[in-house]
Amino acid sequence: MTHSVWRAPGMPALLTMVAAGFSGYAVLLPVAPQWAVTGGADAAGAGLVTGVFMLSTVLFQVFVPAALRRLGWGPVLVAGLVLLGAPSLALLASNDLVAVLAVSAVRGAGFAVLTVAGSGAVADLVEPARRGRAIGAFGLAIAGPQLLLLPLAPWVAQTFGYGWVFVAGALPLVGIVPAVRLARRLHARHAEQAAAAASASKHVHQVGRGAALRALFAPVGILLGVTLAGGALITFTPQVTDNAVAVTFGLALFTGMAALTRWLVGGLADRYGTHQLLWPFIVATTAGLGLVAWAVVGLGEVAGSSPAVGPGGALDAATAPLLVGLAFVGVSYGALQNLTMGEAFAVVQPNQSVFASAVWNIGFDAGSGIGAIVVGVIATGSSFSVAFLVAGAISLATLPLALRRRPTVATD
Question: 244 or 177, which is more confident?
Answer without folding.
Answer: 177
